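Researcher: Here's the sequence for the chain we discussed earlier.
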Amino acid sequence: MSTTRYHAHANYRGAHRRAPGQTLAQELYGEIFSFLGQRELYACALVCRGWLNEAERRLWRYPVLRGRRSCDSFFNALRTSSSSAFIRGLRLIFANDRDGVQDTLLKIPHQLEYITSLSIKGLSCVRIDATVASALGTLSKLQSLELLNCVVPDGDVLDCLLLYLPCLTRLRLDALAMKRDPKYAPNPATRGKKLRIRTLVVGMPRSCSIDWVFDWLMAHECRPAQFEITNIHSDLFHFLGAYLRFMGNALEEFKILPTFFCGLGPHPGFDVAIQMGLSQNLGLHTLSIHCDPSNAKWVPELLETAVECPLSKIIFTMTLPKEDTFYGHVCVPWSKTCQMLKTYWRGQTVVFAHRPMVDEVMYHNAHMFLRDGRREFNRYFADLRRYKPMEVINLPRIDLTEEFSED
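Model: Thanks. This is the structure I predict for it:
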């Protein structure tokens, strides 16, 4: 959150007006404001004093800091403000490793020792050394940690950072890389120490780092109940299959978003690698598949490997184009998918979710996608609705502009 922008809102003369709709209960204001994003909260802060106070609490709760200047202004403001009591989480976005990363991360344990959520993202690689890992490892209340596009020197740094957070329940490792040795060797001092988390999200566009990440997770017996894998190339699925076998019946929810080269579909070993894992996950009750509707040949193959799992809900998430989606050669895998759903999961709920894109200038092809995908889902899958419970929904819009906006 930009401190300069916040003070501009606080001093605005609209902050002294009376609140519109004063007959609403204060609890309703809190409920309504909980659905607003950062931009909307800035606008609400201009309306009146009552809305300013409510927006202030929300804006300080989960601030987003982009770059050295934003971070310095934020931590300087904390020294003279009591608003640190409102802060529950922090999201940091750095342009590169020279963008004040180390200094900023070392300030967190001293000024925000009770935060419950922390996200560290680099637009290019951001290095986390042993000093930073030791400092962040003292955040005793931290429940959610995200490391996006970060580099650690070795596995010992990851041990120091993650194995000593007593309240950690959610972990996201996206494009995490090891600088020195891509092969993980357990440290005797931390051997046998378990990483007990409920939710794990792994994103692996870097093929060179995926093996040591799964080795590290298995070495510390990380068996989450909710597991999501994104941007993993199909020729690397043998690593994923081994980890799925390791989790066994502890896995309850599995989300998958694979990446295939040039629309050629999955690697020949794709179905074998997944089947070796899912066939042994007999506790799996929710399967979420993120896919491209025009490149879904792998979807029925994946469903076939999950026949033995006691699934109660299957979710298909996609972004639908304005052109006819489920026609021509595209309808072949979806016809097979519908037949499998009718045969093996007659009583289970199926959800088709559309993820629209915001039509911004930077999205040169955003106008090609639907804003509302429910009509298209209902039209093509009308026959499926007669056989089983089916839901069609629209998810929140994808807006990447917030990732790259400046202070």
